[in-house]
TrEMBL record:
Residues 1-33 form the signal peptide. It comes from Gillisia hiemivivida. It comes from the Bacteria. SUPFAM superfamilies: Metallo-dependent phosphatases. This is Metallophosphatase. InterPro entries: Metallo-depent_PP-like. Keywords: Signal.
Length: 1202
């Protein structure tokens, strides 16, 4: 609309002189030329108009102007879409009551649908905050129906689900995300996700990444109500604390936009468009553009904080023009009653490689074969110390040159070409397709360390900072634990035992014309080429020529929808036994595909197709990996391939969840049959033949050892399989379907429990369980009106947990012994009889998640520390965690710790146990603590001006004190950073009277302070922590701590006290970049009593308050302190070890003690500074020096204390 403004209008309005007019004309002409230049001569692929928050306009006037401006502008477009990104309804959303619905529908028709009726293109609505009212996804379903029935608009994602994608054309894709779905408290919506494929937030993030992969080579628009980047101006509390989930700084929202941004950065040409913020913005962070257009009603202030950014609180809209060449242009317009005024434009340059930038050698320069290796010699040349610490692995094989056939894609039949990038958390691959729509996978033998690290640091993009660092080199070296060529022998071995599989072949693939833009990251290395396991290849004989091929996700949906779908358990068991035979531990659900065979009467049977065998025959030698297994349970699955499996439980961790879902009715005889089949068909001769087919260049001693161990394992396979069979049978999960099911559970003598599921008088499932084998069974009804009946008596009963799920379920537990009912409190149920029940609106407890299982793990960690007062300490911490049906976030956790302090020879023992859901969302905590008699704290006397003699030995002011306490508590916390504790405690303290120390001079020997004193008391604790942005170098956030308590002596002494301990710390960026941060902490303590011993006094000194003073330097009835740092990040260094950020701090502390009857006005101060090094955004080493009038201290900490 800015093009229609004329020079004459400027003259009428401003009446400038000729010179002024010339200046204005020059500026305007320059602006006009700028608008035209960005799209000069470019072919437009698609145009998006973006707005939001029309439902927030109380008068309807402003939103009408915005929509009118959009509709008018769209008349010039050939291919356009209007995106209204949330908050189209008023605050209460789409109501449930009929009268209120009619009123809302009238409002939407008049204020929204009618104004956009003449928009020249498609219209898409996405949900915002308002659409999620009390009825949640049900309200969204009804709103969606109304909008689509009464307009040409579409509403995505539908059904209250998380994400939907839409191909706009061959150049543009649109991904729509319901961010409020992520932020909602799902416990308030019993049926949320019941129509959705995605049931968890982790699944959502994985799906978002997969959608970006699937749309590789296109410009991808991500429409999400809450922005991933924002410069909206909030008040101090909103900006720093983020208490509400609608604030940008909120922990849950931070996690959402951190992961979305980090994921998008790994791909090219991804643009986020959002509408939660009521303004107009353009931001770009690390080449991730963010457009915010939510200015259709009352607006919010925003400020562009970087060059090239834009922010305005004018009412208006954004127009995003996407060009065929991959570049884009965003323009912002202010709307008025009569027209639209141009505000700003920004060109978004294409990131992905163009064909013009691709270079490769002519095809004629290559022979039929080429010599190559996976790694270079330099990459596998390690020192003797490295080999001892990390192991030999198969390192030398990775740099060994092999002779491989050269593959040009145009030499393959059917005009094969790449269509998208694939790969998992380690592998790099391309999806290929031919003219018959058969697909193939081209996977590089060289894996990606960056993908592995990124998958474990989802909230931070790491590619730029780990490239060519020790972190990358360690992961690349870790990959050499897997033999790169031995798994190719599995093709023949799986043929011998009749397991469906792909048939990978090794090639050298040069950079070439057929790879197109993928030449940028692929080509000139060794690859394996194999058939893609998908429905497009269902006609291939190697997959059994099935009727269809499903992913594991689709298989689960089929199994849960109807019992007419089933897996061939014998085939699956055979495949899983084969996994153990060849040492393939990484069998998570994406490593499987499923061949569907129709059997008549609408019945379907699925056979497994295992894929990705790269972890077979692995070699995890070296002590470091063994040590890592002590502290990190996932490493325990990684077991070296030798003659036996050390632990079948940990080896099968990745496949356990799938095993529990599929293996339902098989007996040991079924397992035994498959073991014998494998043993009889895998003869020594067949094993040797399979490995003889590997390339001659890799036929070395490692292959000989693998064959030897494979033969021994084959002979021991019965024992290994029996061990795993018994482990699997300890716990079972039985599921109904989404239809109406009847569960009949019969208790019998000798611990036998029969479970029968029927539908319409037809038995669809039946199995018997013995208490000697099975300890617990979870029974899920899922959707539908289900009926559960427990009958019979019996003895030695198996524990049962029955979960009805959705709809109205009937429960009749004639025998309630060791049986408990779980269902939603807010939905209708018919409970005829059930003695033990827990009716609670908990999404996590009541919904079926195949990954949820009954399991446990143990972690052991060393501890080392240093303080100026206590010197060095060494210790151990052991944590045992269990996971069951009710988690928060675990079922139970027990941590035992022990420390020894060398300077004082003190011993410290601790235990903390936590038990989930004693009351819903409230955990029970048990805290126990003990110190030996020579454990110390400091005492310099009571008062604000106690004497300090720097010349005396440190021991002079140390007090030996033996203490213990026992404190049960109730604990509540949430994902938004808050925690409450209510705890009662019993505490014992006994001070040793050392006459050669200050304590001996200060108190007479008969003083009660030297008696063993026993206290009882209670505490209320509140904590809030929000420093998610960068925990290692926090530049924006807040931490609150408040403890209120009471203690009284309960063994004959008259001491008692109340106390209050508040503190607050804030990190605030002086500069928007976070380079300069002001951090401050204010705290103190008030003792409400005159009858207390010194060890219960309010204390100051040490790292927590006055950093230049000794720990517990001052002691009194009340205290106050403030510690402040100005932190300056000086720069970043990309070292070969890891990326480092270094900086300095300047610190100042002040504080004082108050004591009754003491006349003191003195405030104690100290100042100093520190040098810090931040590594990998994960940890910070901080060394400081602080000085005061009485002492100087060197302070070393990991991280910052506030």
């Amino acid at each position: 609309m800015h093009k229609s403004i004329t020079i004459r209008s400027f003259q009428r309005i401003f009446n400038f002189s000729n010179l002024s007019l010339l200046i204005v004309f020059s500026v305007f002409s320059s602006s006009f030329a700028q608008v035209k230049s960005a799209d000069q001569g470019k072919e437009i692929a698609h145009t998006f108009y973006i707005t939001a928050n029309t439902g927030l306009d109380e008068t309807n006037k402003t939103s009408q102007e915005v929509l009118h401006g959009i509709v008018k502008s769209s008349q010039e477009d050939k291919d356009a879409t209007l995106l209204i990104v949330g908050n189209i309804t008023k605050e209460k959303g789409y109501p449930a009551k009929v009268d209120a619905q009619r009123k809302t529908e009238s409002y939407l028709q008049n204020s929204l649908l009618n104004p956009i009726d003449k928009f020249n293109g498609k219209v898409i609505f996405t949900p915002g905050v308002n659409e999620w009212n009390k009825k949640g996804h049900k309200s969204i379903d009804d709103l969606e129906s109304f909008l689509q029935d009464n307009s040409k608009a579409e509403f995505w994602p539908n059904d209250g689900c998380a994400i939907e994608s839409k191909e706009i054309n061959e150049d543009v894709a649109l991904i729509m995300i319901d961010s409020q779905w992520y932020l909602e408290d799902w416990d308030k919506h019993p049926y949320v996700n019941n129509k959705c494929d995605i049931k968890t937030r982790d699944q959502f993030f994985a799906e978002f990444k997969d959608e970006l992969k699937d749309n590789y080579g296109k410009t991808v628009i991500v429409a999400v109500h809450h922005p991933v980047l924002s410069s909206t101006k909030y008040g101090f509390i909103k900006k720093v604390a983020g208490f509400s989930d609608q604030t940008y700084q909120n922990p849950e929202q931070s996690k959402l936009h951190n992961i979305l941004e980090a994921t998008a950065r790994a791909f090219d040409d991804v643009i986020f468009v959002s509408g939660n913020d009521q303004n107009l913005q353009f931001l770009d962070h690390h080449e991730v553009p963010q457009i915010i257009s939510g200015a259709a009603a009352k607006t919010q202030k925003a400020r562009a904080e970087k060059k090239g950014h834009f922010a305005s609180d004018k009412n208006g809209y954004a127009k995003l023009i996407l060009f065929k060449d991959g570049s884009s242009l965003v323009r912002f317009y202010e709307t008025t009653v009569t027209d639209s005024k141009f505000l700003f434009e920004k060109e978004i340059k294409r990131k992905r490689t163009s064909l013009d930038e691709v270079s490769y050698k002519p095809k004629e320069t290559y022979d039929k074969t080429a010599v190559s290796s996976i790694y270079t010699m330099e990459e596998t040349d390690k020192s003797g110390l490295h080999k001892w610490a990390w192991g030999e692995h198969y390192r030398d094989i990775y740099s060994k040159q092999i002779n491989a056939p050269v593959l040009f894609l145009d030499n393959l039949a059917g005009n094969v070409k790449p269509i998208s990038e694939g790969g998992g958390n380690q592998s790099r691959s391309l999806r290929l397709i031919n003219d018959n729509e058969n697909e193939y996978t081209l996977r590089a033998l060289r894996k990606s360390a960056i993908r592995f690290i990124q998958n474990n640091m989802k909230e931070h993009y790491v590619a730029d900072i780990v490239d060519n660092t020790v972190a990358e080199r360690i992961v690349m070296d870790y990959y050499t634990t897997a033999h790169p060529y031995a798994p190719f022998a599995l093709n023949d071995l799986m043929d011998d035992v009749d397991i469906l599989h792909v048939s990978p072949k090794i090639y050298f693939v040069p950079k070439q014309e057929a790879l197109g833009v993928f030449n940028d990251e692929y080509g000139d290395e060794l690859y394996m080429l194999e058939e893609h396991v998908g429905d497009e290849n269902k006609d291939l004989e190697i997959f059994g020529s099935p009727d269809d091929i499903l992913s594991s996700t689709d298989l689960r949906e089929e199994l849960l929808e109807s019992k007419d779908a089933s897996v061939d358990e014998e085939e699956y068991i055979k495949a899983r036994i084969f996994d153990m035979l060849v040492g393939d531990w990484d069998r998570h659900d994406d490593q499987w595909r499923w061949a569907e065979f129709e059997k008549g009467d609408d019945k379907k049977v699925y056979r497994p197709i295992p894929r990705d065998r790269d972890q077979a025959f692995s070699k995890y030698d070296g002590p470091i990996i063994s040590l890592l297994k002590l502290g990190f349970p996932p490493f325990r699955a990684m077991q070296s391939y030798n003659s036996d499996i050390k632990n079948v439980k940990w080896f099968n961790t990745a496949g356990y969840a799938m095993d529990k879902m599929i293996i339902q009715t098989s007996t040991w005889e079924d397992w035994e049959k498959q073991v014998k089949f494998i043993q009889s068909n895998l003869t020594d001769a067949k094993i040797e033949k399979a490995f003889a087919n590997l390339p001659e260049d890799v036929q070395d001693e490692s292959i000989i050892n693998i064959q030897k161990n494979l033969k021994i394992r084959r002979d021991n396979l019965m024992s290994v399989s029996r061990d795993y069979y018994e482990y699997l049978n300890k716990f079972h999960v039985v599921t109904g379907t989404d239809e109406d099911d009847k569960f009949l559970i019969t208790r019998k003598k000798d611990g036998v429990t029969d479970i029968r599921i029927s539908r319409k008088d037809t038995i669809v499932f039946e199995n018997s369980y013995k208490a000697e084998d099975t300890k617990e069974i979870w029974i899920y009804g899922l959707d539908g009106d289900d009926e559960f009946k427990i009958e019979g008596k019996g003895n030695n009963l198996i524990k049962l947990k029955v979960l009805g799920g959705e709809e109205n379920d009937i429960y009749n537990f004639e025998n309630s012994r060791r049986a408990k009912l779980y269902d939603y409190k807010s939905k209708e149920n018919t409970i005829v009889k059930a003695r033990k029940k827990w009716l609670v609106d908990s999404y996590d407890i009541n919904n079926f998640d195949y990954l949820k299982r009954k399991t446990s793990n143990n972690s052991l960690f060393p501890a080392i520390g240093f303080t100026s007062d206590a010197g060095f300490n060494l210790g151990l911490s052991d944590t045992y965690t269990t996971y069951g049906l009710a988690k928060n976030p675990f079922t139970t956790q027990h941590t035992v710790g022990a420390n020894y302090y060398f300077d004082t020879k003190g011993i410290e023992l601790s235990y903390f146990g936590e038990f989930a859901h004693v009351f819903y969302n409230w955990n029970l905590g048990i805290d126990a603590y003990y110190t030996s008699p020579n454990f110390t704290l400091n005492y310099f006397g009571s008062g604000n001006e106690t004497f300090y003699d720097a010349s005396v030995d440190l021991d002079f002011n140390r007090v030996n004190i033996e203490q213990w306490h026992f404190a049960p508590s109730l604990i509540w916390n949430n994902a938004r950073g808050s925690e409450f504790q209510f705890r009662v405690l019993v505490q014992s303290l006994e001070v040793s009277r050392d006459i050669d120390r200050f304590i001996g001079d200060r108190f007479q020997g008969t003083n009660d302070v030297f008696d063993s004193q026993l206290y009882g008391g209670a505490e209320v604790i509140y904590k809030f922590l929000n420093k998610r942005k960068n925990p290692a170098y926090p530049n924006l956030g807040i931490q609150l701590d408040l403890t209120a308590g009471y203690k009284t002596n309960i063994d004959g002494h008259d001491n008692e006290l109340g106390y209050l301990k508040p503190s607050i710390s804030v990190d605030y960026p002086i500069h928007s970049s976070g380079v300069i941060v002001l951090a401050t902490k204010i705290g103190g303590e008030v003792i409400i009593s005159d009858k207390y011993e010194f060890y219960h006094g309010a204390m100051l000194g040490g790292n927590e308050s006055l950093r230049a003073f000794r720990n517990q330097r001052f002691n009194g009835k009340s205290s106050f302190y403030q510690s402040t740092d100005l932190r300056l990040g000086l720069g970043k260094v990309q070292t070969s070890f890891m990326p480092l950020r270094f900086g300095i701090t300047g610190g100042f502390d002040y504080g004082r003690i108050w004591l009754q009857n003491e006349d003191s006005n003195k405030w104690h101060t100290n100042y100093g500074g520190s040098v810090f090094i931040n590594g990998f955004s994960a940890f910070t080493a901080n060394v400081g020096y602080y000085t005061s009038e009485e002492d100087n201290r060197v302070v070393f900490t990991f991280g910052f204390k506030f």
